[in-house]
Amino acid sequence: MKTGQLKLQWKKIRQDTVLQNKRSKILTKYKKRLFSLFKFLILLGISYIILGPIISIVSNSFFSPTDVYNPSVFLFPLKPTFDNFRLAMLRLNYVKTLSFTVVYISLITLIQIFITSMAGYGFARFEFPFKNILFGCVIITIVLPTHTIMLPLYQHFRSFDFLGIFESARGSKLNLLSSETPMFLMTILGSGLRSGLYIYIFNQFFRGLPKEIEEAAFIDGAGMWYTYLRIMLVNAIPSVLTVTVFSLVWQYNDMFYARLFSMASDHIITFRLSTIQATIEFVDKVKDPLISQLYVYAGVILVLLPILVIYLILQKYFMEGVERSGIVG
Q1: What are the sequence ranges of the domains in the chain?
Q2: Rounded distance, CA 55 to CA 62, Å?
Q3: How much is the pTM?
Q4: Which of 37, 69, 108, 122 is buried most deeply by CB count within 10 Å?
Q5: Is the pLDDT of residue 291 over 60?
Q6: Which CATH superfamily is domain 85-326 in?
Q7: 223 Cα distance to chain centroid
Q8: C-alpha dihedral over 218, 221, 223, 229, to 10 degrees?
Q9: How far apart (Å, rounded) are the C-alpha atoms in residues 304 and 300?
Q10: Residue 233: predicted pLDDT
């Protein structure tokens, strides 16, 4: 009898919709919490892998020589010092080299924005012979490793001539190496560092803009250049900011073209950073590689700071531009 009553009560409980809803809500709640915990652990692991080396560099940049050989010191120095930064700034000739670098990459970036936006606008809005083939060539420049064209580029700018004009006039070809001229020429001709990607970004953005904007401008009497410069380019500000951030960061960190064209190390701060350890070991007689490495860490922080500030200022517009250009997802 008692067993039958218990079964009946259990059956009623199972059929009680209120209890079922409560149980379902509790299960859903715990599932969400478990999923959130799982996401947190995944993000924590990825963050540690990405940020771990940076945290280590920041920490080591404040180490004193005694901290290096103290086995009890981990991440937090016992005797933090700014001497590493002082010597790194001196050997980098920080202010002068950074100023030259900023001027150089700013000019390259401005030219790149102007040239690639025009190319992207042309591909998005105009019909001309071999358009698809030419755009395919742009895509190839994105995926083609730059190392495969390293030798032709070097030979081309080592003996630069245009239709034999320089050889006829001077008796010899121009050697444009050991200067920034090859980078400016490549940028002006739309084949600079990552120019193919920037053309693609602008092309995607302009294709997304309604044609009625241009048609209204043409009806009001605006010419082609006025429409492009005063209307279309103004509407493309998110893409302009995206390309600006990409170009500034990649030009700032570029070592490939700096070495290939033998640019002066006192003009490119990242190039100069690559020689700081040897300079300190030779000039300041710091022969211990573990100690001289501390100055390299300090130099890395000094070189990172400007580009980090630029990114933080433009972060909002950068993310918006990436989403609207269609280069994600």
Answers
A1: 1-62, 85-326
A2: 12
A3: 0.77
A4: 108
A5: yes
A6: MetI-like (1.10.3720.10)
A7: 35
A8: -80
A9: 6
A10: 87
Residue 325 has pLDDT above 70, yes or no: no
Average pLDDT value for the chain? 86
98: number of Cβ within 10 Å: 18
One-letter identity of residue 86: R
First to last CA, the chain: 65
